[in-house]
Structure formats: structure tokens, C-alpha cells
Amino acid sequence: MSEIPIEDIQGDVLTSYRFPKDVEHFHIFHIEDRNSEQLFAVFLILKRVAVMPVPKTSPIFFNIAFSKEGIDALGLKHSDLGDKHFRDGQFADATTVLGDPFVKKNGKKLPDWEDRFVELELAHKIHGIILVAGEANSVQQHSKEIIQALAGAASILYYLEGATLLKRDNEHFGW
């Protein structure tokens, strides 16, 4: 059996993290004002949580990712990344790389994804996603802080909440 390159593994799946991941919140956002101080407040929240002493806080995991459109909205050059898959977007790779099934919707052949997500992706509205994971109360609190911090700078277009399976010994991946 061959080893999977570590850079191809989703970080919070690795056992070295070993933190409770009871709940995950996914906040898909659209940047309204790239120069807004509120946009950078999110990074300050992430930094503050990252340096909090472990005994005084519930373990929490944050991740933020930007789409090509999000990089463009920030005034950066996505071409500097040199990544064809990033440039072309996930629709281009839905079948060939991701292996996702397609269905016919409104006469169009589209990936069999959540309707709202497909709609936002086709309109090139998704600029990024913020993932908050950990224990339920902590995730709820930190998600609320992030949404408040984004006010005026970005809008949440789509929200998805995931939770672990009931039996603690079950493996789970994705939501």
C-alpha cells in the first residue's frame, strides 16, 4: 500500500490534532469591502484564539480558505499561485478529479451538489469559507464572533452545520 502525501490530507483528519470535533460550522462568504477593517478583525479573532492558554478554553479549530474569486476580490493575483485546478474552479474538476456524479437540473448537466451551493458557484459569488470546529458551545460562540466581525466587510451566503455520529467509536469524514 502506498503512502498518501501529507500535503494531500485534510488537516483536521490527522490524529495528531486529537481534539473534540463534535460540531463543525461552515460559513461560505462573499467579500463586500476588501478594505474594511472588519475583514481583518476575523484574522485577529483567529490569532487571539490560537494563543489562548489551553486550560482556559475548549479546544477549537479554525480554518479559512479563499476561492479564486476571493483572491481576486482581495486585490491579489491568483495567477501567482500557478495552480490550474484553483484557477479553473471545482466545477471544471467535478467529474474528472473529484469523481462527483452529475445530474440534469433545469436542462443543464450539473454536479449533484446542494442546490444553493451550485447556484452560488455558477454565479462566482463564493469568495471563501470559514470552518469552525470543536465542542458545540465553543463552536457556537466563536461562529457568532466571526459573523459579527464580518459585518460590513463580507456577507455569509451559505451556512452548513455538521455534527458527529451518535456512537463515539464511529469513524466519520465529511458532513
Automatic annotation (TrEMBL):
SUPFAM superfamilies the UniProt entry points to: Dimeric alpha+beta barrel
Protein's UniProt keywords contain Membrane: no
Keywords of the record: Oxidoreductase, Peroxidase
InterPro entries documented for this protein: Dimeric_a/b-barrel, DyP_N
A Pfam entry, by short name: DyP_N
GO molecular function (one): peroxidase activity
Highest rank taxon of the organism: Eukaryota
DyP dimeric alpha+beta barrel domain ranges (all copies): 8-163
KW Ligase (keyword) present: no
Name of the protein in question: Peroxidase, putative
Organism: Rhizoctonia solani AG-3 Rhs1AP
